Protein 1
Amino acid sequence: METRSIDDILQEFLPKNELKEVNRILYGDQTNLSYLGSEEQFSYDIEKYRFTAITKNEQVPRITKIAAIQHSVVLPTDRPIQDQKLQIFKKIEHMIEKSSELGANIVCLPECWNMPFGFVTREKMPWCEYAEDCNNGPSTMFIKRLAQKHAIVIISPIIERDNADLLWNTSVVVSECGTVLGTQRKNHIPTNNGESDYYTHGMSGQRVFDTKFGKIGVTICFDRHQPQNWLMYALNGAEIVFNPAATSATDSWWPIEARSAAFDHSYYVVAVNRVGIEKFHLESGAEKIFKPFGSTYISGPNGSRTKSLSTVRDGILYAELDLDLCKQMRETLGLNQSRRLLYYKNKWTEASSNKFLPQIIQKLQ
Amino acid sequence: METRSIDDILQEFLPKNELKEVNRILYGDQTNLSYLGSEEQFSYDIEKYRFTAITKNEQVPRITKIAAIQHSVVLPTDRPIQDQKLQIFKKIEHMIEKSSELGANIVCLPECWNMPFGFVTREKMPWCEYAEDCNNGPSTMFIKRLAQKHAIVIISPIIERDNADLLWNTSVVVSECGTVLGTQRKNHIPTNNGESDYYTHGMSGQRVFDTKFGKIGVTICFDRHQPQNWLMYALNGAEIVFNPAATSATDSWWPIEARSAAFDHSYYVVAVNRVGIEKFHLESGAEKIFKPFGSTYISGPNGSRTKSLSTVRDGILYAELDLDLCKQMRETLGLNQSRRLLYYKNKWTEASSNKFLPQIIQKLQ
């Protein structure tokens, strides 16, 4: 009954040469991308890759090692909140430890990693109760301890409760010293699935964190459908943008959106999705099932990408990224060079006012 | 020695159910997309599709029928200009006639359809000699005659020579009455392949032509790498954006960029590429080969897409589009609803000035 990934299907049925050509189209030029193999743990998969830069003289590669973790909830969604959180903490502690053993410098968890994605119920309780303070809440304290212990940066997407009891969908970025470097709130909240009942659009911009391991940004789930949002991370100088997500159903554009953005802006994109089956018992008595499909993957600034993790199993996607590939793509392909921001600025200003006249041409009668 | 399309490969090797799953991921939800079959002419292929809107009460479908033509040059590239043009005219006259027979209301030709794509030589002559006046040049006169004869709109991408002998990469949009409705100049000129030696960035915006058959925009080739450009067509109300192109080599993002843009902005995108092999004899005595890979396809506003035309043969991609699917996606998915232009306008204004301070967060030392 498992949904097989298309990689598994292609691998099984295509002869070697045909598989190579299909992969070239699906995953881009693989010259700078090597597969380093897999490891199977008892309860999750590990897949390993390396992105190299274009060969260059006299320059030392600037390598950052990252791990994207996709995981499922552990207990049924109607169990006490503390129990559910603790069981997820246990699993994540192990997976972060493993990521560190692999050599990761930066670890990213999926959207709302510490809870079931109960917003699909459109019921306020108990889901609002999962929200935490970003600096001293139990999830951040837990992540701080692991970041310091392993000397790694950790991106921890949770629901934030602020001083005024307003909720936000927020990623906490914790430094390798175990301190909160800052937060990034979700900029675009969907209006078609219940989420906008719980939290609102962030106003903190598209921050780039200049970490020990490279300049990174975080943009949460639905934000990836807004091209202007991806662009701001490029303007702010990001080399890696993480996209923690909770995405389900027949979302066939997942495999291409992060890749398009990576190519358009010459940065790496790490698309990290939840996985597993979450069952909710609604007040009406009905049952609601949320089934995020995993498929975590990484796309390079040259449009090449890794295969996806499983659609049903937990996993760690580990990759070594030469960050200089960003600079090299900007220099050789030059999409940044032809951006023409000045040309757009007035149109955008008009378009966001009530004076906007769309540029429409009609035939003279 | 032909390069096979990945569709041909998948069709040959995958069992029926596996093919269905792979196609769902590669081409999106096919619920609203039907394949109407193919026709093989002596020298080119015809593929036919229909995009329907979501079932709705009491509304008449708003159908526009389009044809995207991909073709190769006819004579060797060193033959007299007039001869080369005339042979292409002959071929195109036949293909437009066939498109009209199929029922097309709007026909789009590829970038610089009336000439070899000599800009890859980086030599000025004779390529500049192909430029024409957009209103009364021989190519526009030819297109006007066909548009009027068949009562169809034709998008004719050529090199424009203006009154001051400045060249532009321009699409002429001709109405079903055979008059020039207006032009759209290429907004973003690549700086990595020679093109910027010949013509410069257009200043005419992202026009939407409110034709008898729907609101259409045209954005030429490299423009598709700039997300801010796609967005402006959405703000101006486009229902179909045509992307005539001259794209070659290992460009594995071609299959996903038009699809990403269509989904992000809830409009149809018709990606029309040149095809064939063009050999150029350089002044240095060397030979330069340009080999655009065809692969013309159409993506719907819901992220579904047709398969691609051949990578090597001429072809017509015909499709019936229910334009109401744009409105329906805007209403149900609501990506336009969460665009937040006001939130971006000041950042863009800053980013296009020399006062821009990127939003970078560093650890306190």
Note: Helices of chain B lie at 6-13, 16-27, 81-102, 138-150, 227-235, 254-265, 324-332, 341-351.
Protein 2
Amino acid sequence: MSKRFAGPEIERLIQLLAKVPGLGPRSARRAALHLIKKKEQLLGPLTVAMGDALDKVRICSTCGNVDTTDPCTICTDPRRDDTTIIVVEDVSDLWALERTGAMNARYHVLGGTLSPLDGVGPDDLNIRSLVDRVAKGGVSELILAVNATVEGQTTAHYITDQLDGLGVKVTRLAHGVPVGGELDYLDEGTLSAALKARTAF
Amino acid sequence: MSKRFAGPEIERLIQLLAKVPGLGPRSARRAALHLIKKKEQLLGPLTVAMGDALDKVRICSTCGNVDTTDPCTICTDPRRDDTTIIVVEDVSDLWALERTGAMNARYHVLGGTLSPLDGVGPDDLNIRSLVDRVAKGGVSELILAVNATVEGQTTAHYITDQLDGLGVKVTRLAHGVPVGGELDYLDEGTLSAALKARTAF
Ligand SMILES: [Zn+2]
Ligand SMILES: [Zn+2]
């Protein structure tokens, strides 16, 4: 803004909203004005919800998921199948798979993929903790639900090697996932079908 | 969400973010996850900024603008021209006009347009306070920067009638504004040109 026409608190609110994915500078202004106009109905409740998230959100020490409890809602759910772990790159992939409702398993969030060029090695991902979970026993199948990218597949191969001798069946998503595509952008039907038609790795 | 896979605080955050203009249900999930991952850099500062806005934002008792002070930043700015008032329907129009940098005047925010079918009459808008401002003297020009819609033009005519005999020149934006268009969606250049080529009403 070339000239000051509102208090610095409002300009700061617009600046920060513009950093939220899905909002640009223009929609950040509209969002700010809408929030200000709906103080009681939206700005207040959203501020409380964000404060709650800020206070309570933590990373699950078992699976790497983010949640407001540790262990997370999924790790502590007694109705889930302990014998199957779905391995994902990111929490957004876990959310996408959960929305399909196709599986009732546990998860393990890697936190990325192996990428030597970017300096991301095995110790930068939650791979050791995954191998430890499997080594403890009780897991019969590991579904590698990583992106169908070079990095995703390289990571899948690395994990499979690490699990050698532990007697766990390793599967991957069926080829319903478009090559080069990212899980988080797919519709629930495609993801659901890919899970059901998973093949031996 | 068919099945609970995260704490209720996270689901509530997603629900509320989905009500922000520019974000739908899907982008609200992405936004929530991004905020959670950027706790220190974004979620924290944004929560503070929203809390500040919640505490401090009020409606200017002089012009109807929203700001963190009353009177607002524009009404208290000593460098602005007291002789010209730009009349707008909404704060978003005031922001759009300010971004052009074309004028250095005062404003008056009506808070809508006359719309008998929707039960919006003169007393539901900040028209009386506008007439009072003009009646106090010192204002030589009133620029009716209302939308080029039927309601906007009806409101402009009504205001002009109310100002009869007060000796103020009433102008409107030049016909650079597309018929039926809303100010807030126009680019700065068009708005700027429309202001400079304003005509007698
Ligand atoms: Zn967990
Ligand atoms: Zn004001």
Note: The mean pLDDT of chain A is 90.
